[in-house]
Design a protein that fits this description.
The complex is a heterodimer of chains A (568) and B (101).
Chain A (H helix, E strand, L loop, with lengths): L7 E5 L3 H13 L3 E5 L2 H11 L3 E5 L7 H12 L6 E5 L4 H9 L4 E4 L4 H50 L9 E4 L9 E7 L5 E8 L3 H6 L1 H14 L3 H15 L6 E9 L4 E7 L4 E4 L6 E4 L19 E4 L5 E5 L1 H4 L10 H10 L7 H12 L10 E5 L11 H7 L6 E8 H6 L3 H8 L9 H20 L10 H17 L4 E11 L2 E10 L6 H4 L12 H9 L2 E5 L4 E9 L3
Parallel strand pairs in A: 1-2, 1-3, 3-4, 4-5
Antiparallel strand pairs in A: 6-15, 7-8, 8-9, 9-10, 10-13, 11-12, 11-14, 14-15, 16-17, 17-18, 18-20, 19-20
Chain B lengths: L1 E7 L4 E10 L4 H9 L7 E12 L1 H13 L7 E4 L3 H9 L7 E2 L1
Classes of the chains: A alpha+beta (568), B alpha/beta (101).
């Protein structure tokens, strides 16, 4: 118990009888006593013994209690050492002097044992409380400096991940707080192998570590996939899916992602939850806005995620501005927000397009009186001619460029394999190793599946599609398919696939050859089929989904080309 | 692939739900879902919510169902198509034959 804890009490009194009485009282309460008879000795004893409580006679020879109290308080520093004056003085001035000298209380002679006991207890409690506050303060200070060190280290790691890209390209200007990752803002930029530049500004909900953590996978997915030439939609989907998977419910990332195509002078932009982006036109000075039309990243699962983007033309010198809500929401000392109107005026009042960036930062800084600068994230991207930008792609093409580019392959499935093996997943897996083809996997699968079933059913198994004109025939067709498949003793299907790059995209050629007799394709090729016919739909599907389809040889060989463009 | 069907007694509406791949292997099951009924339903719903893929033979099967349900007077809705599935239905102009939602 607090009350029962033994204290060390320093008593300084030049009157022997008073001192002895005090000693007796204090000792009886179970405390240790150090006794001296003047101020100098009291100060020395304080230094030596660090007592918990000091009882000082006001008037003593050599050094009086007032001076001793002053010196003891100085020596104690920030520790609380209660000093109680013992005095027979009763006038107000003297008592005030006691307190002014640093005394915490006084005790009038003759001593009341009960009051002294109560005061010792009270000051002991106070001292105890003071020590606890000190201890907690020191712990907090220690934790804080620890946290700051951790943040610095985390920031160094983050910088290495996040700033490996094109943040320093001449057409990019940005402002991000020095410790931005701990307010949850992230900016990443990189140039794709096709030469277009992708930039993402993200703002995670919340602050501190939970907000910062999501920016790590976001950056590494972004840089990994941009460098390999994946489409913006693929990258968006991948980041969304990853964030949805790892972030707790309620934490998500408002983001804008832009693909800036310098040769076509247009941008593709997706805004999920960030304020309107501005496009400042160089010639007219007009401002176009790009609204947020999507939910933030990390909210919806992949099936419900919407990846439709807006395409906007930009002429060289036109500037695109992205920002987090910190700009619009920054407040002045009356608590009013900066707001969109003030932001818009900065564009209207200024013909000098190249100073808008600074003007925004200055205006917000001035408005908020420098209060909330670390919440401001701002990017300015200028449309440029391709020749004006240094080619930063080289580092990707040599060291990072992953995925298949130009290649060809042949896969021939022989009888035993045909009976048991579905080659479609295997073939599709190879095709999507070409980064640009990944977003077309649904279409490619349909192409492969229709080509394969035609080759198998009409070629290898020689099933006539004319059977499928009635419901019963349809039935018979698939019963017969199973029967002939089980009985199959000879036959093959060969896939020859080739991929060539072309501009920012490529051309995929799939040729399927089967062991069947073929058919008179020249005669049949332009025979349209009725909409309600049960058969003949596969070829029509292939035709619609591919760039071209033609039959070769005696019709047992079909060649389909699929052309894709990364910019579409 | 799995096919479930449910006939609502009040409206005589048959709902056929398909999940997984909707291709020729579904043929028998799909047919059973509408052929072996005591009463002929007046309305059909094909729910493709769980179907992630549909090939040209599935298109043929949908047409067989349409014939069975009365051809041009058939009342068939195809619902909950994924974008890939919807693309194939659209390319084949199936919205002229079915109500696709």
């Amino acid at each position: 118990m607090l009350e029962s804890r033994a204290l060390t009490v320093l008593i300084a009194d030049d009157t022997d009888s008073d001192r002895l009485i005090l000693e007796a009282i204090v000792k009886k309460e179970g405390h240790q006593v150090i006794s001296v008879d003047n101020g100098i000795k009291a100060v020395a004893a304080y230094q030596e013994h660090h007592p918990d409580l000091v009882l000082l006679d006001a008037l003593m020879p050599v050094m009086d209690g007032f001076e001793a109290a002053r010196q003891i308080k100085v020596l104690a520093g920030e520790d609380l050492v209660p000093v109680i004056f013992l005095t027979s003085l009763a006038d107000t001035d003297s008592l005030v002097k006691c307190l002014e000298a640093g005394g915490d209380d006084f005790l009038s002679k003759p001593y009341s044992r009960v009051i002294l006991k109560a005061k010792i207890k009270a000051f002991s409690r106070m001292r105890e409380m003071h020590q606890m506050v000190q201890l907690q303060r020191d712990q907090i200070a220690q934790h804080n400096s620890h946290l700051m060190r951790e943040q610095e280290v985390a920031k160094q790691i983050f910088d290495k991940i996040a700033h490996t890209g094109s943040m320093n390209a001449p057409n990019v200007r940005y402002s991000l707080s020095p410790l931005a990752i701990f307010n949850g803002d992230v900016i990443v930029a990189a140039v794709r192998p096709s030469g277009s530049m992708m930039v993402l500004l993200g703002d995670f909900t919340g602050h501190g570590l939970p907000a910062a953590i999501g920016s790590m996978p976001l950056s590494s997915i972004f840089y990994g996939m941009v460098g390999k030439g994946y489409s913006m939609v693929d990258i968006l989907r991948e980041i969304n899916q990853k964030l949805k998977q790892i972030l707790p419910v309620g934490v998500f990332c408002c983001a804008t992602i832009v693909d800036m195509n310098f040769s076509k002078r247009k941008i593709k932009i997706w805004n999920g939850g960030l304020p309107d982006c501005y496009i400042h036109r160089l010639d007219s000075g007009a401002v176009d806005t790009v609204r947020s039309t999507h939910l933030p990243l990390g909210v919806l699962n992949d099936a419900n995620f919407k990846d439709d983007c807006e395409q906007v033309e930009m002429n060289p010198g036109d500037r695109l501005y992205l920002w987090s809500d910190g700009i619009i929401e920054s407040r002045n000392k009356h608590g009013e927000m900066f707001g969109e109107e003030r932001l818009k005026q900065l564009f209207e009042n200024n013909a000098q397009a190249d100073t808008v960036f600074e003007r925004i930062l200055d205006a917000v800084h001035e408005y908020s009186d420098g209060q909330r600068d670390d919440d401001l994230s701002l990017i300015e991207l200028t449309m440029a001619d391709p020749g004006q930008l240094p080619d930063t792609r080289q580092e990707y093409t040599t060291s990072r460029y992953g995925g298949l580019q130009e290649w060809s392959m042949t896969l021939e499935l022989k009888t035993s394999t045909l009976k048991l093996f579905d080659p479609l997943p295997l073939l599709l897996n190879i095709l999507v190793e070409v980064p640009g083809l990944r977003s077309h996997s649904g279409t490619l699968y349909t192409l492969l599946a229709e080509l394969y079933s035609n080759a198998l059913e009409h070629g290898v198994l020689r099933l006539p599609s004319s059977w499928k004109t009635t419901s019963e025939g349809f039935e018979r067709y698939y019963q017969e398919r199973q029967k002939r498949m089980d009985a199959l003793s000879a036959g093959f299907i060969r896939f020859d696939m080739e991929h060539q790059t072309q501009g920012a995209g490529g051309v995929l050629t799939i040729r399927v050859t089967d062991s069947g007799d073929g058919f008179e394709h020249v005669k049949n090729i332009n025979n349209g089929h009725r909409l309600e016919a049960y058969s003949g739909r596969g070829i029509a599907l292939i035709r619609s989904l591919s760039h071209s389809l033609r039959y070769l040889g005696n019709g047992n060989q079909v060649e389909v080309t699929f052309v894709w463009d990364a910019d579409d | 692939m799995s096919i479930k069907s449910h006939l609502s007694e009040v409206e005589q509406k048959l709902t056929i739900s398909i999940s997984g791949r909707f291709d020729f292997s579904a043929h028998q099951e799909f047919r059973n879902a509408y052929e072996s009924l005591p009463v002929a339903p007046s309305q059909f719903v094909v729910d493709l919510d769980g179907a992630n893929y549909l090939d040209s033979s599935a298109l043929g099967m949908l047409l067989l169902l349409r014939d069975h349900a009365g051809g041009n007077s058939a009342d068939i809705e195809i619902v909950n198509c994924s974008p890939d599935v919807k693309k194939i239905l659209t390319i084949s102009n199936f919205e002229q034959l079915f109500t696709i939602r």
